[in-house]
Amino acid sequence: MTGAGVPGGGTTYADAGVDVEAGDRAVALMKEAVARTHGPEVLGGLGGFAGVFDASALLGMRRPLLTTSTDGVGTKIAVARAMDVHDTIGVDLVAMVVDDLVVSGARPLFMTDYIACGRVVPERVADVVRGIARGCAETGTALVGGETAEHPGLMAPDEYDVAGAATGVVEADDVLGAHRVAAGDVVLGLAASGLHSNGYSLVRRVVADAGWALDRHVDELGRTLGEELLEPTRLYTRPCLDLAGRLGADLHALSHVTGGGLAANLARVLPVGLQAVVDRATWTPPAVVQLVGRLGGVPRADLERTLNLGVGMVAVVAPDVADEAVRLLAAADLPTWVLGRVADDDGLRDESTTAGAKGVDGGSVRTTGEHPAA
């Protein structure tokens, strides 16, 4: 049997399921959005083999440390595909990657992305990249390059996945983390915008088992279930970097609440011998979290180690600047409150205590109290 792509025989790349021209159209559609993330530090343009970033500004730093992070957005993509809405998932990608850099106090410099799909649909790929560019613009990150790979036979035609990597820089003296945290420090909770980009395997299972459609309007959410589940992850980059600039050495640590939940991620930025005591009574989890728990009969322990429960980032600050930190973040339209305090570790371990999370030999977190009724 002769190939369909060449008269008289032979098999073409198109016969194998790869549309090179579609990839070129996708690049053309995304080009303007990507260019808006470029400052004078970005040399060249879209389409090169590698992005080029002028790092001359780092010469003025005393001891610049480069930081790097990579991540994806998990199975939230399944919701985007089901809703056929693809222009927000890129914001989630930037949040997952760039806000991990900020935890160390680093300022993001540039980012690259990777999109794998079963079939290149130019408009869909461009929508994804527009979301990435939007997130990069909001965080001051240059989107300097990326790759769209078509994998026919490996992925179904409408399947895709996204990943990204970013690089940032921080002065060695300004690195945040466990080495700064002390007993008496105040733990602040920075509000999440929703479920962010973690725990969607649990959420999707609960929704499927309940037989709920994504276009179902949910009164307590004020919109459809699908719209709620696609709410983009909040970007904490600028507010947290501004907070570091205002508080200086009094900002001790940040923790991005992603996979593993609040306690596990907070424990990662505490030193051995100290324990953060977090009081549930200080906040009410968002309606979507309560809905998932109720709809699926999900045990509290599972909710707490899977979802952010309304806390997307945590700041650990010196006690005398806690009120100022809350005020500064509120002024940046970021609701913030006191979650608890850091104390000497009492050594007791029970179901309320989390320690040694994600392989980090650090401190512990004890979660107490009950959430107020909604």
UniProtKB/TrEMBL annotation:
Pathway: Purine metabolism; IMP biosynthesis via de novo pathway; 5-amino-1-(5-phospho-D-ribosyl)imidazole from N(2)-formyl-N(1)-(5-phospho-D-ribosyl)glycinamide: step 2/2. It is found in: Cytoplasm. Residues 348-374 are annotated as: Disordered. Its EC number is 6.3.3.1. The gene is purM. Coiled coil: none annotated. Keywords: ATP-binding, Cytoplasm, Ligase, Nucleotide-binding, Purine biosynthesis. One of its GO terms (cellular component) is cytosol. InterPro entries: PurM-like_C_dom (IPR010918), PurM-like_C_sf (IPR036676), PurM-like_N (IPR016188), PurM-like_N_sf (IPR036921), PurM_cligase (IPR004733). Belongs to the AIR synthase family. It is an enzyme of class 6 (ligase). This is Phosphoribosylformylglycinamidine cyclo-ligase. The lineage of its organism: Bacteria, Bacillati, Actinomycetota, Actinomycetes, Kineosporiales. Residues 183-348 form the PurM-like C-terminal domain.
